[in-house]
Amino acid sequence: MLATSVKVKVPATSANLGPGFDVLGMALDIYNTVEMSVEPSGTMMVESIGEGSRFLAKNGSKMLVDAVQKVFDTASFDPGGLRIRQHNRIPLFRGMGSSAAAIAGGMVAANLLLPNPLTAEELLMLAAKMEGHPDNVAPALFGGFVIASQNGDDVRYTRIEPPPSLKVVVAVPAFTLPTKKSRTVIPARVPLKDAVFNMGRVGLLVSALAAGDLEMLRHAMEDRLHQQYRMPLIPGLDEVFAAACNAGALASTLSGAGPAVISFVTENSEAVGEMMRRAFGRHGIDCRIIETAVGRRGALNSTVSLR
């Protein structure tokens, strides 16, 4: 019997993690929910509550709706009408994977309504193609820490379960920074020595997380490919990094395209968050602090068929 009503939880994500530009991502323990049901009237109704609800109401939650439609088009399936309700807890346009959550949540929910659901790999391919890169959508689908590589329509990934003691502190500035704008400042060509530097740091980071060598993170999360070019867009960014590490953070890095900053800790999370807040404040920027953890579950293993 086909499901006619489903609910999906999809996590926030932090991409790049320093050196892993467009390759590395991690889910955070902050979840949006998407409820989707077949609507007998044949119409499409979308309701958004929570973070960014005013913006989403004005723009019709287009990304989520487009993601849903891509799954139905791929499967040649017409559900008739749909009623979609999304409860958003992920801040929009802050580098915390709000667009990836919309894509992954919409696709997984739509997939649950299919008579012959797509595979996880097919969903990842569709999601990465829609997002343009896999570093957010992969952890949004699978949870944990994910390494993903895309070559055309071919997307390969592997998942690592991060150490249980690893916690996260996120400083979310009170201004938005669309990913498109943040990507335009990154040069199309970079020095070979910088590319080699980042390759080495990616290797160290993956190894450190797999082995639980958290003391290595401060060195492993160093970057020369994107953060230095994005600093002018985020006043005080280098001071925020330094403040977090001086307060006891293992490492601190830009979350995705920013402007949010993510710090990794095993203790002292409150002190780290306060020092990050003060550093942004010295540049006239208000921010809120979110103390959270790695999201162990992605959208694919956080689903409920209601009926």
Automatic annotation (TrEMBL):
First-tier enzyme category under EC: transferase
Residue ranges of domain GHMP kinase N-terminal in the record: 65-144
EC number(s) recorded for this UniProt protein: 2.7.1.39
Binding site for ATP: P91, L92, F93, R94, G95, M96, G97, S98, S99, A100, A101
Main location: cytoplasm
Involved pathway(s): Amino-acid biosynthesis; L-threonine biosynthesis; L-threonine from L-aspartate: step 4/5
Top-rank lineage group of the source organism: Bacteria
Gene3D superfamilies, A to Z: 3.30.230.10, GHMP kinase, C-terminal domain (3.30.70.890)
Gene Ontology terms: cellular component: cytoplasm
The reaction(s) this protein catalyses: L-homoserine + ATP = O-phospho-L-homoserine + ADP + H(+)
Compartments (UniProt record): Cytoplasm
An annotated Gene Ontology molecular function: ATP binding
Sorted UniProt keywords: Amino-acid biosynthesis, ATP-binding, Cytoplasm, Kinase, Nucleotide-binding, Threonine biosynthesis, Transferase
InterPro entries: GHMP_kinase_C_dom (IPR013750), GHMP_kinase_C_sf (IPR036554), GHMP_kinase_N_dom (IPR006204), Homoserine_kinase (IPR000870), Ribosomal_Su5_D2-typ_SF (IPR020568), Ribsml_uS5_D2-typ_fold_subgr (IPR014721)
Residue span, GHMP kinase C-terminal domain: 206-280
Pfam families xrefs: GHMP_kinases_C, GHMP_kinases_N
Any one GO biological process: threonine biosynthetic process
Cell membrane listed as a keyword: no
Keyword Metal-binding listed: no
Function: Catalyzes the ATP-dependent phosphorylation of L-homoserine to L-homoserine phosphate.
UniProt record similarity statement: Belongs to the GHMP kinase family. Homoserine kinase subfamily.
Alphabetized HAMAP family for the sequence: Homoser_kinase
Name used for this protein in its record: Homoserine kinase
Source organism: Dethiobacter alkaliphilus AHT 1
